[in-house]
Structure formats: structure tokens, C-alpha cells
Amino acid sequence: KFWLKRGLSRSARRRSSLPQAGTMARASGYDRHITIFSPEGRLHQVEYAFQAVKKNQNMTSVALRGNDSVVCVTQKKVPDKLMDKDHVTHLYNITPNIGALMTGMHPDARALVYRAREKASKFKDKNGYEIPVHYLALKLANIGQVYTQHAYMRPYGVNVMLVSIDDEKGPSLYQIDPAGNYFGYKAAAAGTKDQEAQNALEKVVKKKIDFTEDETIQQAIGCLQAVMGMDFKATDIEVGLVSKSRRGFQRLTEEQIDGHLNAIAEKDS
Q: What 3 state SS string does 214-250 have?
């Protein structure tokens, strides 16, 4: 009756409803299944996984490769005042010499860490030596990519940074995203303010300075402080380190972090 009152024919009614129906299909249909491409060639559910990394924990992480070390720094947030802060971490050992910084959904991070440890253990059992960090990055990226192909799976909502001192390549930093991309980096960032952090790290890398271990740590912490616009306390951040001066992936203690924060404050004053 409404259409008749307006004097529209049946064909005119059909034409007027088509654009709206098409818009609704694009808006609400293509993001419901991970395996369906939108007309623009996008996988919306994979893009949502990237947003989960940015928004789930509301934290930012950075990593910087120096001349003889690799440092990764992330915010440490305890979600509940009753929670033991020693049980909140985003730094993990995959092997004694390979460390991982996980940014995003904590349960997904834990699950992917266990997968990584399984891959590393099987590689060592088969070959007799520890898995190279670049090969482990490839294996984790393969897992992420497979999770974008099947409707009964969803991508891991987590970004992974792997750090290690490689026997052949020296200090190494790799980043793996939820879509299954992996690349080697001089410096990397992930999380809520990843773009701002990348801009800050680019300025550091452009200097082309061979940073020592302490300088690398302080540059990474300084970048994160500048991006977040705040002065950290030792309990506000976690710092992971691999260095040629000692074997293995290590977490800095609060006393060590406090020493570096004081050094940064002295430089700025």
C-alpha cells in the first residue's frame, strides 16, 4: 500500500530495494565466516584478529636489535588487585636460548607457546641440535596461516616476537602476526599503540648506531616511555634479553630495570 500511494511500479520497487540489500549483505555477511572473501578481497575475521591484538589487553610492546643483543619490552598490567603479580607475564622461554614476547589474548598466547615448545622439542629430538629461530618463526607462521583457511578454526589473537642469538646470523628478531606473516626485523612493535611505537623505533634505527647491550635496553625502554607518555616504574614493565655476553633468554629483575630507568632519567635531565 505504501508503494501504491507513492505511485511506484513493481519494477521500480525492486530496483529501489537492491542497493540497500547489497549494502546489508556486504556489511553483515562477509565477516561471519573466516573463509569468505569480501568483494574487496578482504578476510574480515582475520582483520578482527589483528584488532584483538591491539585492544584485548590494552598494552604495547616493542623489541630492538642491537649490535650484540636483542631486547623486548612490554607493559605489565595486573588485571586484579588480588592476583599475584608473579603469575602475570608476557615473556616466555620457547627453548633455553629462544625467548618469545606475546602481545594479545593471554589464553591464545599460552596455547601458541605450548605449540612452539612442542615444535622445538621435536626438532631437537630428530636433529640433535636446537631449532634455529628463523625456522621456528616459519613453523609458527605456518600454523597461523592454516588457521585462516578453515571455517572450524579461528586465528590466534596474538602477535609473537621471537628473540635469539643465532649461531650463524647473530642477534635475531622475528615477528609473526595472526595472518601467518613472518619477517625478520631490526626493531618491531605490537599492541594498542603499535604505529606510534614503530615511528619512534624508526628514528632510533635511522641513527645506524651499533648499540651496546645497556644502550639497547635503554633505547627500547625509552621508546616505550615516549609512546605511552609516562615515566615507568620497575613494576610497570617486563624486559627480556638475549645477549652474546651470556647464553640464554633472560628476564631482567626489578632491581635491574630500576637501574636502567634511573640511567634514562639522568640522560633526560
A: HHHHHHHHHHHHHHHCCCCCHHHEEEEEEECCEEEEE
The Cα–Cα gap between 260 and 258 comes to 5
> How far from the centroid of its chain's Cα atoms is residue 262's Cα?
28
- Calculate the alpha carbon distances from 80 to 37, 92, 102, 103 in Å: 40, 21, 20, 19
- pTM comes to 0.85
| DSSP H/E element including 160 | strand 158-166
Q: Give CA torsion, residues 56, 90, 146, 138, to 10 deg.
A: 140
Phi, psi of 151 (to 5 degrees): -70, -25
Instruction: State whether residue 82 is helix, strand or coil.
Output: coil
| Burial (CB count <10 Å: 0-12, 13-18, 19+), residue 93 | middle
Q: How far apart are the first and last CA of the chain?
A: 77
Digit-by-digit pLDDT tens for the chain (269 residues) are: 444 344 444 444 444 443 443 344 345 566 777 778 888 888 888 888 889 899 888 899 999 999 999 999 999 988 888 888 888 899 999 999 999 999 999 999 999 999 999 999 999 999 999 999 999 999 999 999 998 888 888 899 999 999 999 999 999 999 999 999 999 999 999 999 999 999 999 999 998 888 999 999 999 999 999 999 988 999 999 999 999 998 899 999 999 999 999 999 988 76
CA distance 142 to 135: 11
Give the full edge-to-edge strand order of the sheet including 246-251: 187-191, 60-65, 69-75, 237-243, 246-251
Distance, CA of 237 to chain centre: 16
Q: What are 183's strand-pairing partners?
A: 175
